[in-house]
Design brief:
mainly alpha; 80 residues
């Protein structure tokens, strides 16, 4: 096998592994967000009368979304 063919094959294999790993991460994130959404409804109903536990859940279950992070403008320090 010529060296360039072997290099191409190794690069293609690495790319394939990277794509598969990324897909796995995306699937796991999706499953986690689904579980969070289901638990959110349960916890809010169960602890509706317990402000402390409800606040703890809201804090612990907060998930930063990419769109929210993209909307916040970057701040630069003032010169001087």
């Amino acid at each position: 096998m010529p060296i360039h063919s072997r290099h191409f094959s190794e690069a293609a294999s690495a790319t394939s592994q990277h794509v598969a790993a990324t897909r796995s991460v995306a699937d796991l994130v999706s499953e986690g967000l689904t579980a969070k959404r289901i638990l959110d409804g349960i916890v809010k109903n169960v602890y509706a009368d317990n402000v402390g536990k409800l606040a703890a859940w809201l804090s612990a279950s907060h998930v930063e979304s990419a769109s929210a992070a993209a909307k916040s403008p970057a701040t630069t320090p003032a010169a001087g």
